[in-house]
Amino acid sequence: MDEGWNRSAGAWLALMGRDGDFSRTHVLDAPMLARTRGATRALDVGCGEGRFCRMMAAQVPEVTGLDPTRALLDVARERGAAEFVEGRAEDMPFDDGAFDLVVSYLTLIDIPDAWAGLSEMVRVLCPGGRLLIANLQGWLTAAQTKADGWSRDDEGAASMVVDRYFEEHAFRGAWKGMSILNWHRPLAWYMQTLLGLGLELVHFDEPKAEGGAEAERYNRAPYLLMMEWRKPAARAARPGG
Q: Which of 182, 40, 18, 20 is closest to 102 using CA atoms?
């Protein structure tokens, strides 16, 4: 399946620049980076051009980025600061328990088989390790199924049309030269899947925008969330059995 990332890589690099877009620089970067403290071996799944890997490398001794798009990995390797590996989330080329932190930074909507991807993230986590997720709110991904999600009244006021919220489905997002196949899943699907994989929820937030020209508008209708899950530590064997 062609999700469009190879054709959209140039547009993505132009959109992100060195620092990233509004959602990253003014909403998610600071709280996400704060949750990476204390990690020693971190994996960024869907690392793209490696921007968040470079941020983590300032405080995490070993950082690895994984991505299936070679054009983005070439830029990531050129800019350095971490090890970059070509591969897909659904079938990672890493040993069990290889990392004490796995990061999925706005990448779950890009993974066709999210159950397989999350299962792999849990597999490569060591006991006691943490899975740190940033994702779009489900109401936003469900709203992109009709006319890009927007409708306007006679006075030009915009509103969003949410449809098929409970139904997992693909949609093609097109903006600023990008054309990417994404997947909508309701929040309950993510929560139930992560609980079913044996993880424990230790942090959940809908961070506010801090600065930036779009902050006021964003804070009136926020569309990003973050959560941190912990893989239970291995239990000690009972004496005699």
A: 40
Share of residues in the chain with pLDDT > 90 (%):
72
What are the distances in angstroms from CA 104 to CA 30, 121, 122, 219, 239? 15, 9, 12, 23, 39
Task: Decide if 203 is inside a domain.
Answer: yes
Alpha-carbon distance of 223 to 236, in angstroms, equals: 42
| pTM of structure | 0.91
pLDDT 10s digits, 167-198: 999 988 777 787 888 999 999 999 999 999 99
- Give the total number of structural domains in the chain: 1
Above 60 in pLDDT, residue 240? no
Domain hosting residue 110, numbered range: 5-137+186-230
User: Is 148 part of a structural domain of the chain?
Assistant: no
Q: What is the pLDDT of residue 145?
A: 54
> Distance between CA 208 and CA 31 in Å, rounded?
10
Beta carbons within 10 angstroms of residue 176's beta carbon:
10
Angle, helix 5-16 to helix 70-79, in steps of 10 degrees: 40
Helix (H) or strand (E) holding 48: none
CB atoms within 10 A of CB 174: 13
Tell which residue, 37, 46, 118, has the closest CA to residue 87. 46
Burial of 198 (0-12, 13-18, 19+ CB in 10 A): exposed
What pLDDT is stored for residue 241 in this prediction? 46
pLDDT of residue 52: 97
Instruction: Flag whether 235 is in a domain.
Output: no
Here the CATH number for the domain that contains residue 123 is: 3.40.50.150
Domain membership of residue 165 (yes or no) is no
Reading the block at residue 154, the tokens are 């006679």
